[in-house]
Amino acid sequence: MVTTMSQSTYYLQQAELCERQAAMAKLKSSGESFLSAAAQWRGLAAKAAPYEAIKQNPAYGTGARTD
Description:
Radius of gyration: 17 Å
Number of domains: 1
Number of strands: 0
Distance between the termini: 35 Å
Number of helices: 2
Low-confidence stretches: none
Order of helices and strands: HH
């Protein structure tokens, strides 16, 4: 069985990778750059999550109103 990773999960994984790289950075400026990138990835994850929730609604794409 193949499962597809959600966008927000992918973005969070990228943020964690950046945070690990920041912790290993030799230069303070490099660490700060990685932390800045991590914050941007987390921002993307936060923006993607509501859209993913909408797509999981059974009425999504049917034209049916849910209100």
